[in-house]
């Protein structure tokens, strides 16, 4: 059964923006993407920040919808120009959140949601402490491994890397304002909605 493990939010100085930045993170395979897609279907008023990545598209992924798929050299050029709010290297590929689009949407009053990896989430918290951060946890490590293997997309070597990384990420869960266990999907989704709409 899903449970909200803890809810706490440090007091920060009042944000100069009328919108809100929400960071959703958690280990690979925990269901962040599926939760995010359902959240956006229910709440089209949310602005979802599309990340850039140097990894190849997975089957069914669309450039500009799932990610901006760019070359490593282009990513490094944008990184050097300070164009990313956060960036990280994960499983041999770069990921990053375009800075300008996010800040302009927050300033215009939107709820802006980022679905990003742990390293990037930490960067956002450091540079944008007003952000609400949510960490999605698996019901167990064994279940997480089952979900990753069930994708059928990764080699054994890649799975081993993801699982090792997941252990480190799960250990960081209580750095974040809210932790939600994704056991029952609908309950987890409702808990995210509550976090976004029923709190200051």
Automatic annotation (TrEMBL):
EC number of this enzyme: 2.7.4.8
Keywords associated with the record: ATP-binding, Cytoplasm, Kinase, Nucleotide-binding, Transferase
CDD domains: GMPK (cd00071)
Entry-linked InterPro entries: GK/Ca_channel_bsu (IPR008145), Guanylate_kin-like_dom (IPR008144), Guanylate_kinase (IPR017665), Guanylate_kinase_CS (IPR020590), P-loop_NTPase (IPR027417)
Start and end residues of each Guanylate kinase-like domain: 19-197
Gene Ontology molecular function, alphabetical: GMP kinase activity
Residues where ATP binds: 26-33
Source organism superkingdom: Bacteria
Principal location listed in the UniProt entry: cytoplasm
Catalyzed reaction equations: GMP + ATP = GDP + ADP
Keyword Chloroplast: no
Record keyword Protease present: no
Compartment(s) where it occurs, according to its Swiss-Prot or TrEMBL record: Cytoplasm
HAMAP family assigned: Guanylate_kinase
Family: Belongs to the guanylate kinase family.
Name recorded for this polypeptide: Guanylate kinase
Organism phylogeny: Bacteria, Bacillati, Cyanobacteriota, Cyanophyceae, Nostocales
Gene field: gmk
